[in-house]
Design a protein that fits this description.
By secondary structure, the chain is α+β, with helices and mostly antiparallel strands. The protein folds into two domains: 3-36; 48-142, Sufe protein. Chain: A, CATH 3.90.1010.10. Helices cover 51% and strands 16% of the residues. The chain contains six helices and three strands, in the order H-H-E-E-E-H-H-H-H. It has helices spanning 3-7, 12-36, 82-95, 100-104, 108-114, 123-142; strands at residues 48-53, 59-67, 70-78. It has a three-stranded antiparallel β-sheet, with helices on one face. Helix 5 crosses helix 6. The longest helix is centred in the N-terminal third of the chain and has 25 residues, at 12-36. The radius of gyration is 22 Å and the shape is elongated. The mean pLDDT is 88.
Length: 148
């Protein structure tokens, strides 16, 4: 058997079209994810970064950048479930445009309310997001990330 005989029965057109459709769907998924959740990102030269691990094992990172005494940019990253991601997004959205004193008032209940409520067994996700935000604020206020 030669090479052409072995592969002659394979529907190459179908495989090619299927591959293109798959690539298109993945591209649209990535674009929509960034449009729907723009704070799920990393930040260049943040003023403060905090990383925390929740009791469930999820990790969260929140970065803050301040301008004129207010949060100018806030991003998060998590390796957790959809509730952790929703709470990270809510915490960073709540912090945008706020002074450090106003950010200090953001609690796990504020985060829970911003996501529209959480099942009782997932309340720890709101706590993780609020705690990580507060730690990032503490780092900013103490000047720990300042460059010499």
């Amino acid at each position: 058997m030669d090479f052409l005989t072995i592969f002659s029965g394979i529907p190459w057109t179908t495989i090619g079209v299927g591959s293109l459709v798959l690539i298109l769907v993945l591209g649209i998924w990535i674009l929509l994810l960034n449009r729907v959740n723009p704070t799920l990102a990393s930040m260049d030269e943040p003023d403060a970064v905090a990383i925390a691990k929740g009791r469930c094992g999820d990790s969260m990172k929140i970065s803050l950048k301040f301008n004129k005494g207010r949060v100018a940019d806030a991003t998060y990253w998590t390796d957790g479930c959809k509730f952790s991601s929703a709470c990270g997004a809510a915490a960073t959205r709540l912090a945008l445009g706020k002074s450090p004193e106003e950010v200090a008032d953001i609690s796990y209940m504020s985060v829970k309310d911003a996501v529209g409520g959480l099942p009782e067994e997932d309340m720890h996700c709101a706590t993780l997001a609020a705690d990580t935000l507060q730690e990032s604020l503490r780092i900013y206020c103490l000047g720990i990330n300042k460059k010499a």
